[in-house]
Amino acid sequence: MGRALASALAERGWRLVIDARRAESLAAVAAGLPGALAIPGDVTDPAHRAALDAAADSLDLLVNNASDLGPAPLPPLAKYPLDGLRHVYETNIVAPLALTQLLLPKLRAASGTVVNISSDAAVEGYPGWGGYGSAKAALDQISAVLAAEEPDIRVYAVDPGDMRTEMHQAAFPGEDISDRPLPESVVPALLTLLARRPASGRLRLADLAMP
Predict the structure, then answer these.
(1) Fewest beta carbons within 10 Å, which of 44, 68, 124, 164?
(2) pLDDT at 27 over 50
(3) Is 132 an active-site residue?
(4) DSSP state, residue 182
């Protein structure tokens, strides 16, 4: 979804700073995005977050899209490895907040927008999704509190719905997920969100896409 959204924003003239853990994949994406600055790294690394901050002179939009699914196949909570859970929380909760803290002065100056990518697993009790889902639930709450504390910016926790992604496939090893929509299908709703800038809150892109 990050690649799909970045492509759409670049087509509309946005200046982008993009990152990902896999440098080769990131470089391939950046090659198709005029003017995009690609900074490979892991958002759980403070040095990488500092590099992202240094790369942005000003900031209208921060999209926290990095996620860790956790152990796969997805284990029940009774057997969930705690070190794995800590890593899920570090990636899905701590790192987005840490990056947001770092970039808040620029977001305030621009009356900018923060988009935290959530999931229906944050609000539904799916077996096996206790680690990922609880992390996204915490991210939802962080988004809500940040919105209350920072009234001059917009903060959204966005549930994009099921998509045909590498992470979703990892959650269902060996299963055919070709019936799920491609990430590009949710981009129009995301662009609508950024254009309309409604009040901060949690939203489902499927609802936003409705007439």
Answers:
(1) 124
(2) yes
(3) yes
(4) P
* Residues 18, 30: Cα–Cα separation, whole Å: 8
Q: Which two tokens stand for residue 10?
A: 């670049």
Where do the structural domains in the chain lie, given as residue ranges?
A: 50-208
Q: How confident is the model at residue 188 (pLDDT cuts 50, 70, 90)?
A: very high
Average pLDDT estimate for 162-186:
69
pLDDT of 132 strictly over 70 = yes
| DSSP codes joined into one string, 36-90 | PEE----TTSHHHHHHHHHH-SS-SEEEE------SSSPPPGGG--HHHHHHHHI
Output b/e per residue, 174-208; b: 16+ Cβ within 10 A.
Answer: eeeeeebeebebbbebbeebbeeeeebebbbbeeb
Residue whose structure tokens are 């998509």: 163
What is d(CA 60, CA 82) in angstroms, rounded to the nearest whole number? 37
Which of 80, 89, 126, 132 is catalytic? The answer is 132
